[in-house]
Amino acid sequence: MNKATRSIAAAIVALAAVLVAGASVAQTRQSEDTEKALRAQADRAGVIYQRGKAAHYTQKFDLSGMPRYVPKQQLTGWIRLHGNNYLSDGMLGELWQQGFAKYQPGIRISYFLPTSALAFAALYYQQADLVMGHRPGFYDLLAYERVMNFDPVEITAVTGSFDVGGWENSLTILVNEDNPLKCISMEQLDAVFGAARDGGWAGTNWRSDWARGPEKNIRTWGQLGLTGDWADKPINMYGFSIRYNTATDFSDKVLKSSDKWNENIHAYGNIVNPDGSRYIEADQITDNLGKDRYGIAYNRYRVFLYERQARHGDGPEGEGISALRSQPGRAGRRDA
Hints:
Layout: H1 3-52, E1 77-83, H2 86-89, H3 92-101, E2 107-112, H4 119-124, E3 130-132, H5 138-148, E4 171-176, H6 186-193, E5 200-202, E6 205-207, E7 236-240, H7 245-254, E8 266-268, E9 271-272, E10 278-279, H8 281-290, E11 295-300, H9 303-312, E12 321-325, E13 333-334
Parallel strand pairs: 1-2, 1-3, 7-8, 7-11
Antiparallel strand pairs: 4-11, 4-12, 5-6, 9-10, 12-13
């Protein structure tokens, strides 16, 4: 082996040692991250389990005016339903099964409900007849269309809770309690939370006519009509990590499914504290917004938290938040 060959061999060995050491560090880091992630999932599962066993709505609704289901024939067989764990975390799945059996006793329902994250794939793998979860995302639809060559039938049902945290609560827009803003439109929300874009998605179809430029950005409170000391103050945004379905849902509703966000948004994910407790992203959003006079956030509506903070000043140093609701084509209103 000549000198040049020995040098090359030595360099390869040295490189291999560096790569092995790097891989070892990466594996150690991954295992720590995985341990925390699994601990957070276990903690969440415990919270959801306890919540699911309690009765949150005591009001009885009069459904006598609704059309009654009258089966045209009696059927037999199985219906395979996959997806949303909330059906089994609470009593809804069991109640559905018992109620349907009164009309179709020959039909059995097979549930597989670990998470909405796997729901959609069960359809195009033909492992389920029905799935329940959030609205299909871009790759959900793309995979389904490529496998099945048509779009799935979507039925909107069980759209969420009003004031029970963790049950797919509706989106709400929040500002600090000191903020004099009275309302905000969907177009303004796009201008505040979004950025210039070359288009947006309608399902898996790219719409270049949904493009907008940076001149439509809103970055100061004066651009939303506030005057005086507020006029030149920057708007500070708070929300969910864009890997969460809540962020995707907001982007679909407000940002034309473009995923083009304001570059300065503070985005949060669930974390596990050193004492083992879970600090969820929704609480991080409200906690930080309560300390930021010039902040605005999107979050999941939880009336017990927002009304407590806004009306009683229970936030850090007596500060709180106020809720603004915004609907397509309408201005929002202050709740507190």
